[in-house]
Amino acid sequence: MATAGRRTDTKTQVQRLLGLLNKHSDVVSDSLTGSVEPQEKAYSAAVDALVGINALLPLEEGIYHLNPRIRSYLSEQMAQYSAFQALTRISDQIHSARSKWLEMLAIKHSGDLRDMQVMEDSFTLTVTEIHHFMTQNLLLLSTQIATDFGNVKTLRAKLQQNKFYADGVRKLSMELEQLEAFCNDMDKDSLGKGFYYVRQIVNTRIRSRLPEWFTRVNDVQATISRKLFESKELEVDVLLWSQSVLWLTRNPTLNGLDVAVDEKCPADLCIPTPIKVRPQLDVMARPVAGIDVIAAAVARLPKVVEASAAPEPKVIQKVLRRGNSIEEVALLPEEEMIEDLKQALLTQGHTEISGLAWQPDKRAVHGINDESWLLFLASQLALQQIPFTFSMLPREKGWTNDRYSDVVAQPLPFVSELELSS
Amino acid sequence: MKSQTNYCLLAGNYICPIAFPQEYDYLLDEANRSYTNEWLGGLDMRLARVGVDGAFFMAPVVLQPQHVTKIRDDILRYRDTYGPYLQMLQLIREGSPDFTFTPGEFVSLATLMQSVSESATLDSRLRSMALFIRDAQQRFNQRELIKKLLDHLKADGYLILANATSEIYQLTGKVDQIKSVLHYLAENSEIVSTVEDDPKDAASDLFDEAVANGNSGT
């Protein structure tokens, strides 16, 4: 529980520190390339806050610089190194690892293994440091020789820098040999003494990488030596080019620069903007040369897809009725009168029935006049093949058509009821 | 050829004898140049050359405020506008002997690959460029990355594929445009400078240094 509580406490403190650095990242960024001075109120407050957590350290009165540890971390991350930044020596770490190894052997020999875990952890940390420092040294060297002039401005400074790094690389090369000897010793001893974990750590983190490190250090050494003699022959264009790449390397946080440009500057600087030309064919003119183009364009058109009817929404089918029941349809008044007439003809035997005299009251109620009724009656009787006659009026002068005054339904002596209903 | 040249200029190309030999020959004729200039005049453009005798390209008749703003923006975004080409061509220079950014120079994929293979430094720089080389990825092997780098430069008009079989590329006249920018920056900014620090003395120091060490260090 105590460990958990301490861990939570540490976590809160780390979060607070990182939060402050993040909040005032603009000041941290400024201080990476030089010292900073309090300016307006907000900036001064940020400087004060960073001084409060020792991220900024006072250089002189009112002038602050970035904590070297933070600068070192940021430089490593951004591969931005000062011109003569020294390589990190690893001799101390090799010596320390060797001492810890001897200590572990002594602990095992004594039989009191209580401190063995602590010692193993410490040894692992040292091996990790060696790996980290070597990686960073190689990154630093790669960056320094990335351009013809490294990150200095003049050839003289470059020569001095070359000498500086040539010495550094020579020492680094010697240290690598020490490291190789240490790894070989460890490989044999740890196997003999039963320290398999230690052997694995050394082999995986250092020994397996030694060949690559040797190659890169030799390569850097060769490059520095070669460039000592090549750099003096640079032509102006090449020199400018190299310096420009150098500027990009040295200023990873800058995107460009603000240079005064006016209308008198050379047109060479203006990168031409392409003007898209897309000739449109006059389809109506039916040009001979363009027919193929038009055909190709038509072929590229998307196919016409007939708009399909929107699918009907799915509904749950229900059984509304079983069987073929016939729905009764209510008859119209005139149809009812026809039906009554048919019944009357069947029931009354040989009596003929006058249409004009048939149910005059009912017709009056429903507003059916005589003329319409007689016309309807005649057509219905004809359709149902019921014999009938017209009571014709005498012809009169001036009338072209024959006129009738009544429709008389004839009796049905041989027609059965069944036939009539069908 | 007339329309072909006009289209080529409108597309924003730099017409040099390497990339567009026919169009370049056409424009070498005074009468053709006059015609092209007059034709571009209708678009408020003119026929211009990079430097005195560099590649032909289409430039505004007079630099208008919008052109000045664009030039300024290009320099404000120097890392994005010119940075990738500067770094990629610099890698080619370091990997190809005697390469001096002169139009017409050849770049051999095989030579470049050999140089990068022999130098862990060049290899690490090549890998760092995978961030901006078009269609490149960190997992690519050396050859793939170099091929992508050359393809990127080819697509943007700085190289042409001179021999597809042996994969030899050739630097075009468009590179002179970058050099013009560098010269302008040398005169108007401090990021580059043509003034060297007494190279004669430095050279003698070099010699003394080599003699004193008795070894060039390789």
Description of the structure:
The complex is a heterodimer of chains A (422) and B (218). Helix content of chain A is 56%, strand content 5%. The mean pLDDT of chain A is 80. In chain A, a hairpin with a 2-residue loop joins strand 1 and strand 2. Chain A is elongated, with a radius of gyration of 55 Å. Chain A has a 3-stranded antiparallel beta sheet, covered by helices on one side. In chain A, strands 1-2 form a two-stranded antiparallel sheet. With 422 residues, chain A is mostly helical. In chain A, helix 5 packs parallel to helix 7, helix 6 runs parallel beside helix 8 and helix 6 packs parallel to helix 9. Chain B folds into 2 domains: 61 residues, Arc Repressor Mutant, subunit A; 104 residues, Arc Repressor Mutant, subunit A. Chain B is globular, with a radius of gyration of 20 Å. At the A-B interface, helix 7, helix 9 and helix 10 of A face helix 1, strand 2, helix 4, helix 5 and helix 6 of B.
Give helix and strand order of chain A, one letter per element, not per position. Answer: HHHEEHHHHHHHHHEHHEEH
Largest sheet of chain A: 3 strands, antiparallel
Using the CA coordinates, give the radius of gyration of chain B: 20 Å
- End-to-end Cα distance of chain B, whole Å, is 55 Å
Structural class of chain A: mainly alpha
Mean pLDDT of chain A: 80
* Poorly predicted tracts of residues of chain A: none
